[in-house]
Fold this protein.
Amino acid sequence: MFLHNLKYELLCNLRAPALIAWLMIFPIFLGIVFRIGFGSIYENNDLFGAIPTAVVETEKDEIFGRVIDSVSGEGSPLLIVTYADNDKALDMLKNGEVKGIIYSGGKVTLTVAGKGIQETMLKAFVEQYGVYETIIRDALEHDPAKAPKVIEALSSDIKACTEIPMTQGNPDPYAQYFYNLIAMVAIFGSVTGLHITENNQANMSPLGAKKNCSPTPKSISLIASLTGSFIAQAVCMLICVTFIVFVLKVDFGGRLPLVYAAAVTGGIMGVTMGFFIGSIGRLSNEFKNGIAMTVSMVGCFLSGLMVGSMKAVIAEKLPWFNNVNPVAIISDCFYCLNLYSDYDRFNFKMISMLVYIVVFTALGIILSRRKKYASI
Amino acid sequence: MQVFNAFFKVLRSKLGIVLIYMIVFVALVVVMTFTDTASGMFEQERLSICVFDEDCTPESAALREFIGKRNDLRELENDNDTIIDALYYGRVDYVLTIGKGYSAKLAAGDTDGLFESKRMHDSYSTVYMGQTLNEYASTVSAYIAAGNDISAAVSKAGDAMLKDAEVTTISFDNSSGGALSLRSSFFFRFLVYVLISLTMSTLCPVLLAMNRKDVRYRTDCSGIRPNSYTLQLFAGSIIYIFLTWIVLMAVGVFMNGGMFEGMQLIAVLNSFIFMVFSALLTILLSSFSPSINVINIITQVISIGMCFTCGVFVEQSFLGESVLAAARFMPAYWYMRVNRMLDGSETYDGSLITQALLIETAFVIAVGAVTILIRRIKLSDTSALIAGRVRA
Amino acid sequence: MKNTVVKIDNLVKRYGELVALDHFSLEISEGEIFGLLGPNGSGKTTTINCLLSLLSFDKGNIEIFGKKMAPTSYDIKKDIGVIMQNVAVFDELTVYENIDYFCGLYISDKELRKQYVDEAVSFVGLEDFLKFRPKKLSGGLLRRLNIACGIAHKPKLIILDEPTVAVDPQSRNRILEGIEELNRNGATVIYTSHYMEEVEQICTRIAIMDKGRKIAEGTKDELKSMIRNTETVNIELIGLTDDIKAKIAELPHVYSTEYDGTKLTVCCSGGKHNLIRILGVLQENDLGFGRVYSELPTLNDVFLEITGKALRDDADSAKKAAPHEKANKKENFR
């Protein structure tokens, strides 16, 4: 009986492809938008690259020239230097080809066109040159004997700071938009879940009434419907993740099977949420749809789908909320898998999803358990 | 006027759902505006740095103070996950640990491995702070080499490094600030998302009810001309959306801290045109009578997709050339151009604003015309459909 | 004595103020085609929904096959076939799949099910449309599909709630013949309708409902015998004087005469030669006449006489429609 119901549930899903198709199209479409939109932001704005700088030599300054060479040469350059005359340098600055102009000869000065980390770094570079110059001059004036040691201290290649990498994963902060996108597809499973109640409740559709008259227990037809929707949603999730990982080539870290598992679990949670919303009282289908949509959308918003900094703001102001918001839970799973080496938080998030699934299903079944209706 | 009247009667029956969406979206635009105004997506010169001092000597305290002069110091729990979260979401730019024995090593002239930094990736901030720390260490050791004791060296190095270089800032941007405050600018920016989502979410149930096959067939059989029907739908939808727009503008006035005036009225006009566009686009989509579930998803695709490509959620200046080139074919792009010129992120150019507003209007007219056309085609479709049914 | 299949005892169902079923009782025996007749909003569908345990009711008792009916009475449900007023099929499934689906809710055995489904298909004559989706079917075919979905599992009790609404006469006859055939094969049938002709045509026993109450019950002859009228004689003639009219009125068994200048209508109760006697009076007075016809009473007359209003007084009863019918109207703008 269960398999019979399941078979036709799946057949119906297959034959009414509009919803499922849109559930598949929309992450693909938005994924492409994100990929093209964010593709270069990370590399251009977050990852360090040598700073294009123009140098205008008002008079020859050999020491400064050597310093410039040392920071713009092979290896890990700080600056990409173009020597130019004043007019050309200003022109380049205006067009954004360089971030700043360093004037050498006599006092070293800097001209920039804006404020930002690159400008700050240029300023620090110029300042440091001044500092070294002062120290050496002081040493030569006060205690020439110590001057060689001072110069040695200044010019030795030191590495004061040991860098400890925090993660093996993909540190691109824009990847979180993809996490949230997948979470959104998952939570939209609620739309698939909504029709389960509609098709099984006698007071919501003639089909439901007819099913209620059959000797198939409602629990069986409900569970068959749920399973059918789980399967359909799981397929959506698999396609969505596969597309984002293999076509858009978004790096999810090294634990792909778990990414799939988290996505599918999230999708199932979405379906059960819809099932639960669908079984609340006698609201119109449209109204329930509205509730499912607003819950999903607000969840997505608070998880940072629209404004990326939202999740961090929530983490600061309402830390517990990220453990409750279903969308945030799903997207956090991907985040944890990407960045953390251990599984503590990931497991916690997965368990939270399972708890949601159980609670939603149980409440849904309790609310729509076999009953007579006051009116049909 | 029958269609027009029916529109509002149906709308009244959907008031519950309309109100839910209304409340949610007004809340969204308020939260979005405040969040982003607070976090400020503009580039900053001051970095947020978290310093863990394991050495606890006057020298390490001096370093901390030195860093704090030009950057903002943040407190974090010394826990890897917390640090990863903070770095990933940009709550801090740099996490520094001053190792035990820092002051002793520095006094002995040993400058290697004084610090540890926890890094995510090679960002500008890591490189910049790495450089600064190296320079600090070598400056201090240079002062020691010059015969100072450690505490004198530290204080001299601090003073020397904090001397500002002579920096000239040229502004090639001859805009004289924006007509919109930062907060109002964010408000109008996120209004794009809210207007289009709210319009589609609330108008669609009404239009779909009016478009229901049986009702439509029946209406098609009446004497009413399809163009008149469509125009009455336009009128009803636009009046309804106008009312919601008024509500949103009231929220905007509150955000602005006073009535809109002067140049700010351009932003109001801008959003008005975009509102009409949203309404007509909704009518166009609902002409295809999709199910309510499908329309919900299409709403998300259009609203989120358009907002990302046109620079609503992410600054236009961050987006690549190709994205912006494609975005030109969407009215939200032009809306954002106007908004950017008004808030001063782009040079103000009166003729460009006029052009952008005209392009938006052109979108409105185009969508309206296509809708009228589609509905006429749909009408002839109806008879074909009926004829296509199998007779018993 | 045949077994009682359905027993409804003092059923009361209220929708707020409105009493949809007012102490309604009914007993249906095995092998009957039982007709539930009444105008729109008289409580027929409410009765059916209560019977099927879909609706809760305020008072009363329902037994089917001698057992109390409850939402979980699966053993009872497996022997019931339901054909709802609204066509309830999956738009996504084909004709064959729909029948198979609903049959499968009752019959697990695949072989048997296939046989049953095939039989149901040929029973309603949908062989040529097996691969069609419901949306492509005409109204009559759709009704037939709806019926096939309800009877494929060969139920012992078949409940049909206005299955012929909006169906053309040919399809309707086909459906009625089908119902009689099912009955011949042993099924007990409950049939609701507001078309008295249908009910008269097929039902062995009839209950007439109005405003939630049963106002009459019996075989159609029993029902007709409940009223005075046994024969209505119509005679087209011109020049009838009050004098002659009075003579006709004085004839035995005649209880009412009416004349509108062209047609004389005489209602009689009982008696065997009423027409001849009336014509005799006319002959005596040398009065010529045109067409003459005599009508036997219909259920409409029964209804008319009991309630004082015509059975298909739709405009009137629609105003008093029960809430569930109002709910249907609400759907117009969904």
Observations:
- Chain B touches chain C at residues 10, 13, 209-210, 212, 215, 389-392 (CB under 8 Å).
- Residues 383-392 of chain B have pLDDT under 50 and may be disordered.
- The CA atoms of residues 180 and 370 of chain B lie 35 Å apart.
